[in-house]
Batch of 2 targets.
Target 1
Amino acid sequence: MAGRKAFRWHIAVFLAPAVLVYTAIMIIPLFGTLNLSLYNVQGQNRVFVGLANFATLFGDPRWSASFWNALGNNCWFFVIHMLVQNPIGVLLAAILSSPRLRMAAFYRTAIFIPTILSFVIVGFVWKLILSPIWGIAPGMLDAVGLKSLYGPWLGKPDTALITLALVSVWQFVGIPMMLIYAALLSIPDDVIEAAEMDGLTGWAQFWKIKLPLILPSIGIISILTFVGNFNAFDLIYVSQGALAGPNFSTDILGTFLYRTFFGFQLQLGDPHMGAAIATAMFGIILVGVCIYLFAIQTRLRRYQF
Amino acid sequence: MKKTLRFALLASTLLAGTAQAEDVTLTIESWRNDDLTIWQDTLIPAFEAANPGIKVTFSPTAPAEYNAALNSKLSAGSAGDLITCRPFDASLELFKQGNLADLTSLAAMANFSDVAKSAWQTDDAAATFCVPMASVIHGFIYNKEAFDKLGISPPTTVDEFFAALDKIKADGTYIPMAMGTADQWEAATMGYNNIGPNYWKGEEGRLALIKGTQKLTDADWVAPFEQLAKWKDYLGDGYQAQTYPDSQNLFTLGRAAIYPAGSWEIAGFNTQAAFKMGAFPPPVAAAGDDCYISDHTDIAMGMNAKTAHPEETKKFLEWVGSPEFATMYANALPGFFSLNSTPVEMKDPLAQEFVSWRGKCHSTIRSTYQILSRGTPNLENETWTASANVINGTETPANAAKRLQEGLESWYKPAP
């Protein structure tokens, strides 16, 4: 063809709505937050302070203790999700995709429903279930003779975070289940038949054939879990309040940010320190996602059918 | 078709515009969501009847979210015309930021004593920015039937108090005391700041703390924590996960005998509880000691400096400052004691009991509210965690006091 191709305007036109909306509600606020974290109030004026807010956040013994406590709790929250939510999700998907299972559609829907519930409902309902006074948890344990195992889990520093993480797992286990289920269904029958011809059935078939084929999906789920957990806030706030009690044992970055940014009770909000925490959270998530994208995803082997 | 729709839309906006111009609607921001019906059914109709042309909407936020929500609304310019004021620094800061208007010249201000106004004034008392509404008194509410059945009379000393708790516990019918630590503020507000004034001698200790001549690590300030640490044996099973509404329900259902209370509970308890209730002030160390109560200036109302209707808003505030409002408010909400200089007749016996302590005990306000919660870490919020930890047994009284003092010293330098 002679001459250059005409500029393809339709591409720009079709992209424009999404780009504009995304810029207006995501990119501009993001840079606004990053910018805000570089300022602080001195007297009545807003002045540029450079990285002084970060120096306070990481250098001041109180601020840094709160920050590391929140980060540590957040990591633990993530670890529980990775160790409990995702294996259970894979297991449920494997069971659901078994052709011998009856009423698979019912189980699939039932397990997925909590995911679409509001955090407020989930937090409130679990708080009631576990309540030492009105809850059904003590009664149910009593019925099977395990009353001694019961404790006010949400009120004890060493169990509160684990309990909340498990509630969150209960709520979101449907997502890995659905993604893995879809991945399992997309494995062509020829591959499975070939494996059967070679004598691979049951668990061996799962480990050797299916698992490698769904690994990319597991990778995606892991990164979704990571981003979701490090942005989490709602469940803790609904069930433990902004102080993330007892004694800050359930404080994660989201609640720490909320308390700092908006203030709490007599503590007035500090948007500048809040923005510094938000920036730190952004950095943590960015680093995590980058590690995944460059170190893990590039090494995952993909199979073309 | 398109044209008709366009005309219809245009017409409706015009109509809506004129409708707004006729009636001025004032919106009240408040954290008292419990009082919604009282404002809607009693207070607002009384005002609207006397002031045609002004409509008032009461629009409360949950107490724990109020300050954060209000600050965001004010900075976004979407806050209501009337702002319910928290005492001391939270409101002072709003005034300094130019969000609350100066109300010193309001005629109704003459109806209030200097002490009543002190919570909503600048440090030099030159400007007052909220009209005082009410104070709340701390003490203990008890189940009279339970006390009669077990033959206990309301305790006056700490020893009698614990003897009564032991007796209730030994009997086993009732949970001795209904309180939980899950929400933390109960432990600080109904615990530490309820029993504390008897140890630190009310205003004397509070002002000495502000002046820097006393420290939170002094024996008088650690002693309330030591008493709180002993409370844990008398709370219900699983009190660590018991929330504030749980405690209220335990008591009003008749399952607990004593409720560490603030007088704001009276109205709710009167409607919920089917048994007779009584109240006693925080017990003193030895019989005959002077008693001190927390009579905390808690609630006031100010004007959003950026309101579109300053005249109507001031009219409403003049009414809030009137004896007429004081009588109506104090009787609609027994337990919120009017700060108006005109004495108010109250009909509720429990409220009368609470207010009678003003005659025999010395009044003070919560130790952490004035000046000491201005910085970060915030002493009031730290006290919540510390009091809950002490009751849970995860921090010793001495360590909790030491941590609070260190936090305070990190930013607060007493004026020399």
Target 2
Amino acid sequence: MSGSSSWSLATTGGSIGNSTGAVFVRAPTRFLSEFESKRRLASYGIQSVSERLVFSASEAEEAGRELGFPVVAKLCGEGIAHKTERGLVRLGLATPEMVRVAAEELLAKARPEDGETGVLLGEMVFGTRELIAGVVDDPQFGKCVMIGFGGIFAEVLADVSFRLLPLTRQDAIEMIDDLETQAVLEDFRGEPPVNREKLVDILLGLSSFAEADESIVSVDVNPLIISQGIPIAVDALLEVRA
Amino acid sequence: MNKTAAILASSERFNALFSPEGIAVIGVNSHPAKFGFVAAHNILRHDYCGRVFLVKRDSGELLGEKCLESVDDIPDGAVDLAFICTPAAANPDILRSCAAKGVKAAFVVSAGYGEAGPEGREAQAELVKLCEELGILLAGPNGQGLVSPPVGLCAQIVAPMPLPGNIGVVSQSGNLVSSFMNLVEGTGIGISRGISAGNCAALGVADYLEYFAQDPETAVSLAYLEGLPDGRTFFDRAKKASRVQPLVLLKGGVTSGGAKAAASHTGSLASNDRIFHGMCRQAGISRVADVEEAVDTASAFSVLPLPRGRNVFVLTTAGGWGVLTADRISRSRDLSLMDIPPDIMAGFDAKLPSRWSRSNPADLAGGETRDTLPECLELVVAHPEVHAVVLLGLGIQSNQAHLAREGKFYPDNGLERICKYHERQDMRYADAVVDLMSAYDKPVLVATELAAVQPDNPGPARLRACGVPCFSTSHRAVTALEHLARYAKYRETRGI
């Protein structure tokens, strides 16, 4: 489990190149913090973990006790788009002491360009399967919802599928069916099959969310960890027009 | 396409393009290698049912027809389609004269437009604007022409002229229109309309697809596409068109190498292939991977009923082909190799020696007598749980007859009689396929390599004569069937 794998939809910044080498210059964009991104997605039925945003090591300890150990700690701020690469994710914090140390270290890593920062503490989610879901704004087809396999093989397998906004329930069902590696969605290493209904709901939620807000440029729910068959948005990043 | 063009693109306008009362070829040339000769020749050599006027700068005669010196000499209202082969610079004046004569549509063959740098693009924009002002529906420019077999019109600078049928073809590459029609030719399948969209200056692929959807002659659309100026609009329009009829689409430029070639070819941008693929699924488009699959799939849609489910039964007199076909169907996400229903099993047991395979695929194992195959086929096609049938082995008996006929022992030793029997049998099998398919409204896909390598073989030849496709391999047949099943499911799940 990680904050974000290297396969990201939201790393394109201000422009997207396509296969002809043409570059579409776009209006400047900015990223919302993980906390804010998840908060907005939650109102469209995209379920995340229980979380607390705190601003000091002592608050972090207390929040850890409330959530129940183990927890995950991440540095959270508007300008932070690549947590894993910067070492801003701490997993498996099992004691108040571990939480306190992690919070201190993370806060010390904050850079001025990260904006206002805090530590986001969340329940640790266990699951061997990682998916990725999101929204992209394609230069030719406009906004599209995406679903695919995440994790370390995400880029090499590139098992992803897209549909244009707005999605119907049938479109969402079929885009999941279009994924090549269907076996991973079935019973897998002692875990139950992926709850496809919940996955469909997430895709429909992304579609409604992106349709409702013109300023959304991209959405990256990554990873979407499958925990006992239920997809849970462990990290999310919204890119909006600046 | 802009809004004005959308208004112009009404059915009536398209009738001027595909069912004109009269056509004028402008820029006729007496040199047989010039476009202006070839176009006139191709129109005159076929049985176009309207009037033809040839406009040639120095008048005179061509192919026995008297040429007019100018568009002004055409009788008022006699022509609704102008086929223009003149240099780009001459076209504005010609189009104005055409409009004065009541011309409603123009196919512009001339190059030197959007594909030819900034000046060409400017000339193209002016051409579009002028045609809008004149009320002329503009096809092309830089296209190879159009065919409309139902009215005998072959207004193109490439071959062939296909049989009349129900497949409408549109392509951003003129050569591929020709290739699609070449591949369809000789299969017994026909074409309703075919057009090389050229630079798509005013009319784009989506416009033609919309027209095909409302054209009573067209039941299936087949399109070749390289790039789209506005993907989102294409999606919305194609989705509407695919509700009416199947839409088979071949996309070029899906790799970066192909996209580079396509970008320089049509001046359009190629799009991310995965998004394109998702768009096709969402719009109900049958996206195909290559030219053969395009033609197989369009042919299948053209003639075969849609399956009402995913269960496929394979009937074979050729064992290995049955196994390969079973493998292919088992790998399919859209089809199921069904278990043999007990009543089919019992029916076959009663008709065949015990060595038959007793499973699906049903390999008759050479145990058939005169009527076995048609009877077994009917048991299968009639069965309510069977949604589609693949028949393998047609033509094998006639191939044996062919070998005997060519040999030194023919016609003695009873060979003449047995050859005739074999050939009659294959024709009966073909007839059974045609009759049962229509009686039970269920697709039967026949595959044999003999369709390709031995076109005169009475099995495939009989099917062809009945206008029913005979695929050259079972793999190709099953791929086409997958498209049928997917489209049927698309319609069903959306309540269409």
